[in-house]
Design goal:
This protein has about 210 residues and is α+β, with helices and mostly antiparallel strands. Helices cover about 20% and strands about 35% of the residues. The structure holds flavin mononucleotide.
Length: about 210
């Protein structure tokens, strides 16, 4: 313990349940409070929410929540949409290794996929966007970069329809390993992990 006097906690500004992050000097000022708030929050995870882990060029991993737009159980692939230029897109450009974790608290289940992440092409990205609910679809359309050159009103650029989503990119994580985990009564759990057999759609059990 250091000899300096503990500083009195500053009042953190919270309005309508939202924290004034710009006024914070340190994350320590709110993490405990947010954790406390979460302890009584029973709202379900959004449908399709998964934790995506990427790794930057120095080997530093980072994680964030994204929505899985497509899960292909047969090929062991999950796809998601994001904005070009986010930290995850920079990470993926530097290191293609990634992982995704689904957690379904009500059933007490997790699915962990580890593998290789790659950008989808424009057509595949558009197909994901078309599958979005209408409101999200409009949001994805707004992801178009502002600097895009404008054609004269009513004239499609280059004679072609403009892309459905400019700044929105689809990515696919192709698993090389999948683990299924399920809780059991009294705090126990069972897990089983498989690795992909070569570049096939067959899986070999590891544990
Ligand atoms: C429930 C939930 C769903 C989210 N879904 C997405 C998503 O599908 N795509 C996305 O880019 N960001 C999504 N986000 C925001 C990301 O967690 C993240 O903050 C943002 O993409 C910036 O990530 P970066 O660390 O790669 O810059 C979601 C956040 C939450 C809480």
């Amino acid at each position: 313990m250091s000899g300096s006097k503990p500083r009195r906690a500053r009042a953190v500004s919270v309005r309508g349940g939202k924290t004034d992050l710009a006024a914070l000097e340190s994350p320590a000022e709110v993490i405990a409070r947010w954790a406390e708030d979460a302890a009584t929050d029973e709202s379900p995870l959004p449908r399709g929410a998964m934790t995506l882990v990427t790794v930057d060029g120095s080997g530093q991993p980072s994680a964030r929540v994204v929505i899985c737009q497509h899960l292909d159980a047969a090929t062991g692939e999950v796809s998601f949409l994001t904005r070009a230029g986010t930290r995850k897109t920079r990470d993926i450009a530097a290191c293609s290794r990634g992982a995704a974790l689904f957690y379904w608290p009500k059933a007490g289940r997790q699915v962990r996929l580890e593998g290789v992440v790659a950008a989808l092409d424009a057509g595949q990205t558009d197909a994901l966007v078309l599958g979005l609910p209408l409101l999200h679809k409009l949001g994805a359309r707004r992801m178009r970069p502002r600097a895009q050159p404008q054609a004269a009103a009513g004239t499609p650029l280059g004679g072609e329809a403009p892309p459905l989503v400019g700044g929105c990119v689809g990515y696919c994580l192709r698993a090389t390993s999948i683990e299924l985990w399920e809780s059991r009564p009294l705090g126990g759990h069972v897990a089983r992990r498989w690795v992909r057999a070569g570049d096939t759609a067959r899986w070999e059990v590891v544990t």
